[in-house]
Amino acid sequence: MYLDLLLVGFGHVARRFVKLLDERASVLHDRHDVRCRIVGVTTARHGAAFDPNGLSTAVLLDRYASGSSIDGTDRDRAGRDYSWLLSEARHHTATACAEGRVVLIETTPLDVTNGGFPAIDHVREALLAGAHVITANKAPVAFGYRDLAARAAAAGRRFFFEGAVMDGIPIFNLVRETLPACEILRFRGVVNATTNFILTAMERGRTYHDALTEMQRAGIAEADASHDEDGWDAAAKTAALINVLMDGDATPLTVAREGIRAITPDRVHDARARGRRIRLVASAQREGGLLLGRVAPEELHPGDPLAQLDGLQNGLLLETDVLGTVGILQLDGGLTQTAYALLSDLITIAKQGTRDRNRGHSLAPSP
Ligand SMILES: NC(=O)c1ccc[n+]([C@@H]2O[C@H](COP(=O)([O-])OP(=O)(O)OC[C@H]3O[C@@H](n4cnc5c(N)ncnc54)[C@H](OP(=O)(O)O)[C@@H]3O)[C@@H](O)[C@H]2O)c1
Fold it and tell me: Which CA distances in Å does 208 have to 1, 191, 200, 202?
């Protein structure tokens, strides 16, 4: 199956994703019969480019790295924004859109101040144009999951977001594919790599500032690092997990939230001296018919699986009605893992498209 990709955002995650696409091209082709080409890219400050015959990954990466516009011209080509990208796609890849072979890869930054916009609009408009959507951005699923999932279903398109929580480790796919008859009653997790790295580094004698700077340099901290420090990123992930896994209606604003700025080295060392560790814990549970989400630093007992998580490691414990507690650990997190989540969602879309076509189903919207 041939897929045309539109990228909105060409930052750390998207750039690692396009390299991974090249690195795994033979696996995609030989194992899954998928071939991809990037036909359009738009950014905030690095211009935009579109070519229905495919853009060169190497050229895009070189231009971005050199600081010039990704289309090789000056940066201020007015009007070359997301709407321009979609209108080019509608015009030049109309057949691919109609056949369900266009996929939007949404990797703009999380913005908690705007109710999930503009990312929600990016998803809505792409679905309307006939594209599937994959995002690593938590905003659409944390603020607009129910609406976007309904729109995707009505359009006969997929809306996937595995990379939004715990990078490439399957959570949403795991629950969707393997726990179809279980209820998730509650969950607890360490879901933000930057804060876990900072807390671990402080246990080892490094300063908060030094550890945060390392995360920013590695492209792992959010573009606005206060999103990590103040617990917004974890709150967005908590809302996403509540909405998808527990059929809730949360937003990051409804999650009770406390970040790690007030955690001092003394507090970290005092907890260590008592055999405990401070971790930023995200959790949700049902109470009196309500679904309550919470993000806060907690002192964890050494027997708690979440207390074992060091550095960039993340973990999630799902308490289910049938299987008891299911734990998922991410021992190696980072950009490649997030890029991999986008890739794995892409393969799922291609496989479903192939399956639908073999069954003679069109991917057109249901009446
Ligand atoms: N980094 C990670 O390890 C990680 C892990 C999991 C999930 N995520 C999520 O993945 C997303 C991307 O992360 P990242 O680290 O790649 O962020 P990033 O490096 O800040 O890149 C964001 C990209 O989005 C572009 N952009 C911003 N607003 C835009 C708009 N309105 N229209 C078009 N493009 C726009 C930026 O353009 P310019 O390049 O011109 O600034 C940039 O290319 C975020 O939502 C983040 O929360 C990241």
Answer: 48, 19, 10, 6
2-168+336-358 belongs to which homologous superfamily? Answer: NAD(P)-binding Rossmann-like Domain (3.40.50.720)
Instruction: Please state the φ and ψ torsions of residue 166, each to the nearest 5 degrees.
Output: 55, 40
Q: How far is the CA of 229 from the centre of ligand 1 (A)?
A: 18
Q: What is the CA radius of gyration of the chain?
A: 21
Kindly give the distance from the C-alpha atom of residue 11 to the centroid of ligand 1, in angstroms, as a whole number.
Answer: 5
**335 C-beta closer than 6 A to ligand 1:** yes
Q: Which fold has domain 183-332?
A: Dihydrodipicolinate Reductase; domain 2 (3.30.360)
Residues of the chain with pLDDT under 50: 364-367
Q: Is 167 in the pocket of ligand 1 (CB under 6 A)?
A: yes
Strand, helix or coil at 291?
Answer: strand
Q: Residue 284 C-alpha to ligand 1 middle, in angstroms?
A: 27
> Active-site residue 237, yes or no?
yes
> Could you report the per-residue pLDDT of 313-336, keeping only the tens digit for each?
999 999 999 999 999 999 988 899
